[in-house]
Amino acid sequence: MAVKDHVNFEQFMAGVERRNPHQTEFVQAVREVAEDIFEFIADKEKYHEFQILRRIAEPDRVISFRVCWEDDKGNIRVQRGWRVQNNNSIGPYKGGLRFHPSVNESVLKFLAFEQTFKNSLTGLPMGGAKGGANFNPKGKSEHEIMRFCQSFMTELYRHVGADVDVPAGDIGVGAREIGFMFGQYKRITNQFTGVLTGKGLEYGGSLVRTEATGYGAVYFLDNMLKHRGNDIVGKTAVISGAGNVATHAAEKILQLGGKVVTLSDSQGFIHDPDGMTQEKIDWVKHQKTVVRGSLSDYLKEFKGARWYAGDRPWGVTCDVALPCATQNELNGNDARKLIENGCIAVCEGANMPTDLDGMRVFKEAGICFAPGKASNAGGVAVSGLEMSQNSERLSWDEATLQDRLRSIMRGIHDRCLEYGEKEDGTVDYVRGANIAGFVKVADAMIAYGVV
Ligand code: NDP
Ligand code: 2IT
To answer: Which of 69, 292, 359, 433 could disulfide-link to 151, CB 3.0 to 4.6 Å?
Structure first.
């Protein structure tokens, strides 16, 4: 076959920008991956020939739908829901659902694109997808949440399935919402199958899934530090977020001998110089999943802490930082502050929390930097194990799952080394994760031919 003309990186990105106007988050996520991939495939004709990156950066499909529900006063409310099925070359589509007013097509396309690489990195057979709605769960009653979830699933059910697409939780979607959606799926289809993960233990959920993302991120951090002859013992950690990922990351830091001095929510951050105890973390979990109130109430419960309204925690002196709230919550200035204050490692619990400028600053400073698609993959990995358990209609014990999570995170770390280790011994985890995630998906796509 004759060698075809190839676009270069800038021409490729110009095309992505032209085809996806105003989708800034999606373009950002593609740019961050494409830079490494273009360099890697420069001398690999087959990846050009099959237009692999061009195809991964075009979702298989974007499904968008209306979600009508009735609030407690009887008003009819209308939201927009989506499922972005990015790529199913290595397994059924898999990825979370996000309910947050900021959700739009760009955000879900970026998340589905990232998920494709992340899921590949886990070594498990899962494709990449993401979905959600521009629904704000804050201040809604249990009944309103239930009616919304049921209405959302009444459309989503026709696009998902245990061997087709398996959604899970993300921002604003936890055990409660998964329960309502699973109940509705079962009611509509009359089938009890593993169509969602993150389910309750009584109806097919997996032990360790709740903790997996935060714990996994800290295992990844530990692997990074150990690779440099260091560890978490005695390290001071600054964490953003106060949700599923942040609280479990805090808990694991504590278990491994570190000290956690901050958590944050959308209203501000808490600085507790004495360090958080398990009791304090349990209070935060309760406050966010049961009371559903502000993190600022921490001050009423525990002495010695301060609340910084409307601010983020990156100015607090630390050894390690874990952004675990949302995308683009850490910019170039934040990154410079962290480095000036002596931070030696940043491990992303959220998806794309560091913007492109922030990543550049970390890269130039040569600190350990773990991109979310590698370091927060523990959640979807245990989701993959939940799918395996559902398929064999068995439940594995906690020790087995904890072991599997630890070894999957170690496997991801080692896959990053394979493509990211430099001659001077330092590791570019971003490059490592991008390339290792890409290769498996790309080779599967080549095997299928032009589809
Ligand atoms: P939760 O809904 O449990 O918690 C989210 C936390 O982040 C809350 O404290 C919330 O504040 C804060 N937050 C959300 N949006 C914003 C915003 N726009 N600005 C400031 N703060 C914000 O979500 P998760 O912990 O599940 O998810 C956190 C991140 O981790 C996301 O990026 C998600 O995609 C990623 N992730 C989650 C996984 C999982 O298994 N759950 C797996 C892998 C990645 P408030 O309480 O005020 O709402
Ligand atoms: O971003 C993510 O990896 C998740 N929200 C978890 C997805 C999943 O399918 O468990």
So the answer is: 69
